[in-house]
Specification:
- It is a single chain.
- The radius of gyration is 18 Å and the shape is globular.
- A 6-stranded mixed β-sheet has the order 4-5-6-7-9-8.
- It has 10 helices and 9 strands.
- It is α+β, with helices and mostly antiparallel strands.
- α2 packs across α3.
């Protein structure tokens, strides 16, 4: 809920004032000092719009239309924000050339607290009832994996136009070695699209990461476990 910045995490009653001051300082001073070409008003609008895209593939044309700039400019701005460690662009895996793939990247705001602040999510109860709960949890898990990813491993996602999808692929030497679905609840159901996606990559390990479930295997061959066990016991071995 509160994100990872110490000032917000340790003083949650004052976090929203801190977040607002942080965002204001970043868009008015820090980003321009780093050479970001957009004015502060546009920077804030872009950041807020990306919060609504959090966990989704980016529609560059839609973003460009709403911001009244070109799609090429949007891509330039997003690359800049990623280099500034504010967002994470998760690329689409492009290895399966036999199927029509979703090619646009997914976007995540890297700090969960800023993401919640930009959407006006102030309490745990509001978060639990919010339609972005699943995306919030997905972004949090992706960020933890990203931070602890072993050397020479990269991340991507996989989605076809026919409905096959996996939230995360872990790649070694450019080839998928593990596929991951991310679920907030413990009532895990493997969709037909998850099974089809896993079958597109023969021999990969398959996981479902949840908030706090025990470890068990599904009939589809996915190993279900909580995030702590995955990060501690599985990720270092991939």
């Amino acid at each position: 809920l509160n994100g990872g910045f110490p000032q917000a995490f340790l003083k949650p009653n004052r976090k929203h004032l801190w977040f607002e001051n942080y965002i204001k300082t970043y868009v008015e001073r820090d980003l321009p000092m780093l050479g970001f070409p957009a004015d502060p008003g546009l920077s804030r609008r872009l950041w807020t719009m990306l919060a609504h895209y959090h966990g989704q593939t980016i529609n560059f044309t839609e973003l460009a239309r709403n911001l009244e700039i070109t799609a090429k400019t949007v891509k330039t701005y997003l690359a800049f924000l990623e280099d500034a460690f504010l967002i994470h662009l998760l690329p689409s895996n492009q290895l399966n050339i036999k199927k029509r793939l979703v090619k646009a990247p997914k976007v995540y705001l890297r700090d969960a607290g800023i993401f919640h602040h930009l959407l006006g999510i102030e309490t745990k109860n509001v978060l639990l009832a919010h339609p972005k709960l699943g995306a919030s949890w997905e972004g949090f898990v992706v960020e933890q994996i990203h931070q602890l990813l072993p050397t020479n491993r990269t991340l991507a996602f996989y989605r076809t136009h026919q409905g096959a999808e996996l939230d995360v692929l872990i790649l070694r030497a450019g080839l998928p070695v593990a596929g991951i679905e991310i679920k907030f609840g413990d009532n895990v159901r493997i969709s037909k699209g998850n099974t089809e996606a896993a079958n597109d990559f023969k021999g990969i390990k398959k996981y479902v990461i949840t908030k706090n479930s025990r470890t068990f295997s599904t009939k589809e061959g996915f190993q279900v476990m909580n995030i702590q066990d995955f990060l501690k016991d599985v990720l270092p071995t991939i």
